[in-house]
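pls design
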């Protein structure tokens, strides 16, 4: 169930549409798409990136058309990602290369949120060096840091690096995780994300990490504030049942599960029923009361 400052009527309408409410006009061969205000019930969207818009460097089929429809319909959106292997600048370049409409200010990442939240504080970084440009407000140090900051290091999560971070924790630093995702979908299969390594540091140090990115409500609220919309007016679309769907619902948004990326049948988060399930983001325009043409 949606909690917080939600409006139950909005969810009911979305469900009706999801089960086949075909009460919008036939737009025939219109070259792009038509927005039918009568059946629109969300005013904005938060959209996950990896596994939702693309896998690796390959766009999900229909994803670019969906984004074109949202642009045509004037529906505001923000990209909300837990990606910590790339800087926001690199994410923007990657989206642009794949043909997605993007401006840097549309992209919300755990690193950019951390730079605001922890500005001026000292930390020992266990993050990719490519993220340093997004963390310019923090002071990196190995001399009595206030925090240990963990992002996804992939193959660079070595024993030596984890052990050094562990020693900082045992010397008084607090554990902060940019995100705690369990796994993600690479081109060749599912792979470990930062979460298992955060859990290892939690286990060894006895601390519980403060998590910055999804599914934490403040992260969603920052994107909502930027949209200028209330939680009940916005849906989050993503492939991660826990971080995207359940997290958004906890913050009061609608949660839309796409069956791409890391989605697997039967791995839904217990107790977290999505408000809407789509085979992919290609189905979003119809669910929102738009009908995509065969171009764009
Ligand atoms: Mg994802």
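designed seq:
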């Amino acid at each position: 169930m949606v909690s917080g400052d939600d409006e139950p009527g909005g969810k009911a309408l979305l469900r009706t549409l999801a089960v086949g409410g075909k009460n919008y006009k036939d737009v025939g061969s219109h070259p792009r798409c038509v927005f039918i205000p009568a059946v629109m019930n969300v005013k904005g969207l938060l959209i996950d990136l990896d596994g939702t818009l693309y896998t690796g460097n390959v766009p999900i089929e229909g994803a670019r058309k969906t984004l074109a429809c949202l642009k045509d319909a004037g529906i505001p959106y923000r990209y909300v990602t837990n990606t910590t292997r790339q800087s926001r600048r690199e994410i923007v370049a990657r989206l642009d290369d794949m043909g997605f409409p993007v401006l840097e200010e549309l992209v919300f990442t755990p690193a950019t949120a951390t730079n605001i939240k922890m500005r001026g504080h000292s930390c020992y970084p266990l993050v990719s060096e490519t993220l340093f440009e997004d963390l310019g407000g923090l002071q990196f140090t190995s001399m009595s840091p206030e925090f240990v900051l963990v992002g996804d290091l992939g193959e660079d999560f070595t024993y030596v690096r984890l052990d050094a971070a562990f020693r900082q924790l045992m010397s008084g630093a607090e554990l902060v995780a940019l995100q705690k995702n369990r796994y993600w979908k690479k081109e060749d299969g599912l792979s470990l994300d930062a979460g298992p390594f955060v859990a290892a540091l939690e286990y060894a140090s006895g601390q519980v990490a403060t998590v910055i990115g999804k599914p934490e409500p403040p992260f969603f609220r920052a994107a909502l504030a930027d949209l200028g919309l209330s939680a009940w007016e916005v849906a989050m679309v993503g492939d991660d049942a826990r971080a995207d769907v359940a997290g958004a619902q906890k913050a009061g948004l609608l949660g839309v599960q796409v069956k791409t990326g890391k989605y697997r049948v039967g791995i839904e988060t217990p107790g977290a029923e999505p408000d809407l399930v789509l085979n992919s983001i290609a189905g979003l325009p119809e669910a929102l009361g738009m009908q995509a043409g065969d171009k764009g």
